[in-house]
Structure formats: structure tokens, C-alpha cells
Amino acid sequence: MSPPLPLPRYHHYLIDFLVLQKPPRCEADRYVGSMILEPRSLFIMTDRAYETMLHGIAERDSDYIDPAKVFNCRPELENKTIQRGTRISITIRNVAKVSKLNVFEMLKK
């Protein structure tokens, strides 16, 4: 079996971080910064960051890499605009059991 080839489907994206506040304020006031998710990268958000910050990827066709806003900006990406492509994302969460509802029994009906 031959090794897998890197697929062109893996592209960069910027993920934005916002402070979770009560009462909610406008998004611009809560914006903390962004992080570039590079091709074939792994991002894990845990502990305090997961509990106190919102995160998301804005809908747009390209990203401007502003070194003042992007936490992990490499020098060769500074002040560049990068076109987006498709990025495949998988989210895994550890959720405590909150219901005794048996989904499999419901599906049988």
C-alpha cells in the first residue's frame, strides 16, 4: 500500500477568538485576536481558553494576515492576503451523560 499523498483540499484559515462576556457586548469589543490554521494543522482548545472564549471561522474568500492580530504569524506571511480553499474540520467533545433517553429505541419506531 502506497503512502497517502497530501491532498489539495487542505488550506489555511484564520480562527478568531472572542472573550465570553455577560451581558454580551458587540463582537468587535470582544475580539482578542486570530490564529492561522495552516494546511494539515491540528488545533486543540482546552481548559480556561475553552471555558472563557468563543472561537469561530468567519465566512470570507480570503484572509489578510495582520501580524498585530494573528498570534502565530510567521514573518513570510505578514501583511499578505491569502485565498481560502476547502478546509476539513473534525470536532471531538467529551460530554457528560445528560439524558437517559435511548436514541436506539427511538430509531426502531
Structural commentary:
With 109 residues, the chain is α+β, with helices and mostly antiparallel strands. The protein has one domain. Helix content is 15%, strand content 22%. The chain has 3 helices and 5 strands; from the N terminus they run E-H-E-H-E-E-E-H. A 3-stranded antiparallel sheet has the order 2-1-3. The radius of gyration is 18 Å and the shape is extended. Residues 1-7 have low confidence and may be disordered.
Number-wise, the strands total: 5
The largest sheet has its strands arranged as 2-1-3
Give the overall form.
extended
The average pLDDT value, as a whole number, equals: 80
| Structure classification | alpha+beta
In terms of quaternary structure, what is this? single chain
Instruction: Kindly provide the radius of gyration, computed on alpha-carbon positions and rounded to a whole number of angstroms.
Output: 18 Å
Number of helices: 3
- Helical content, roughly? 10-25%
Biggest sheet statistics = 3 strands, antiparallel
Sketch the topology as an H/E string, one letter per element.
EHEHEEEH
Tell me the number of structural domains: 1
Please report the distance between the alpha carbons of the first and last residues: 43 Å
Low-pLDDT sequence parts: 1-7
Strand content: 15-25%
GO molecular function, one term: dioxygenase activity
Protein name: Alpha-ketoglutarate-dependent dioxygenase AlkB-like domain-containing protein
Cofactor: Fe(2+)
InterPro entries: AlkB-like_sf, ALKBH6
State the main characteristics:
disordered N terminus, 22% strand, 109 residues, metal-binding, 3 helices, single chain, 15% helix, alpha+beta, Alpha-ketoglutarate-dependent dioxygenase AlkB-like domain-containing protein, three-stranded antiparallel sheet
